């Protein structure tokens, strides 16, 4: 799975698309958000919304010491940044348009634009343009991998072999398509077989990972004697 998270960031004065490394802490994330929201890190309240179309609050990033990846977020969720002390940072004054003449664009004219949020959602099948669950299932190819098989997972780090045992194969609630759940031989994973409260298999913390089938090579892979202190 990718170590980079793509999200929309919204605040009283800003809205943007951002990418963040899942390994940074919430405290470090707040420092980055301060640069383009203008809200001091100490005054930020970060809520995670389900999507751009669904403002349901999934979780609040309240523990500055936790890594961003701890919260099991997914791409294209929304980080809503509120200011707990707006009187000190003047939050919201930049977006006070009460004295500005309103510009209106008709629905037909907006639909014809190629640089709009609507066009982006249509192109990337986000929100209401995303395939329905039944459509995704029909498009999911058959995977010739057996649970219990020994495997090696493709690694972006040269010389690093990530070996383990297949513990799960199928569709999940955290993303569309077929995923392979692997229990690593060493603590090189991201979870314990559970994602966003849903249990797909069980293993020790940081020994579990979910990857696409094309990243998994099945074979007679014995356990490696990894010296984690040197890695």
From TrEMBL:
SUPFAM superfamilies per the record?
A: Cap-Gly domain (SSF74924), Ubiquitin-like (SSF54236)
Task: Name the InterPro entries on file.
Answer: CAP-Gly_dom_sf, CAP-Gly_domain, TBCB_Ubl, Ubiquitin-like_dom, Ubiquitin-like_domsf
Q: Which organism is it from?
A: Lentinula edodes
Pull one GO CC term from this UniProt entry: nucleus
Protein name in the entry: Tubulin-folding cofactor b
Q: Which Gene3D superfamilies match?
A: CAP Gly-rich-like domain, Phosphatidylinositol 3-kinase Catalytic Subunit, Chain A, domain 1
Its main localization is: cytoplasm
Domain annotation CAP-Gly: ranges: 170-212
Q: What is stated as this protein's family in its record?
A: Belongs to the TBCB family.
Location of this chain's protein in the cell: Cytoplasm
Q: Could you tell me the Gene Ontology terms of the biological process aspect for this record? A: cytoplasmic microtubule organization; post-chaperonin tubulin folding pathway; tubulin complex assembly
Under Pfam families, the record lists: CAP_GLY, Ubiquitin_2
Tree of life domain: Eukaryota
Gene Ontology MF: a single term: alpha-tubulin binding
Keyword Cytoplasm on entry:
yes
Key word Heme present: no
Keyword list (alphabetical) reads: Chaperone, Cytoplasm
């Amino acid at each position: 799975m990718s170590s980079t998270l793509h999200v929309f960031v919204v605040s009283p004065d800003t809205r943007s698309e951002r990418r963040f490394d899942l390994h940074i802490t919430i405290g470090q994330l707040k420092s980055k958000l301060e640069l383009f929201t203008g809200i001091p890190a100490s005054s930020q309240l970060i809520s995670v919304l389900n999507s751009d179309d669904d403002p349901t609050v999934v979780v609040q990033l309240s523990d500055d010491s936790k890594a961003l990846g701890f919260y099991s977020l997914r791409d294209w969720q929304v980080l809503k940044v509120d200011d707990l002390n707006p009187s000190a940072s003047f939050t919201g004054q930049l977006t006070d348009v009460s004295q500005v003449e309103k510009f209106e664009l008709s629905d037909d004219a907006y639909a014809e634009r190629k640089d709009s949020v609507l066009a982006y959602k249509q192109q990337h099948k986000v929100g209401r343009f995303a395939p329905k669950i039944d459509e995704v299932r029909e498009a999911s190819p058959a995977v010739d991998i057996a649970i219990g098989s020994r495997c090696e997972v493709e690694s972006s780090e040269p010389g690093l072999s990530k070996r383990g045992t297949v513990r799960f194969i199928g569709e999940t609630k955290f993303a569309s398509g077929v995923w392979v759940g692997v229990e690593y031989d060493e603590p090189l994973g991201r979870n314990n077989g559970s994602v966003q409260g849903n249990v797909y298999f069980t293993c020790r913390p940081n020994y579990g990972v979910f990857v696409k089938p094309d990243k998994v090579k099945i074979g007679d892979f014995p356990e490696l004697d990894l010296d984690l202190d040197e890695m």
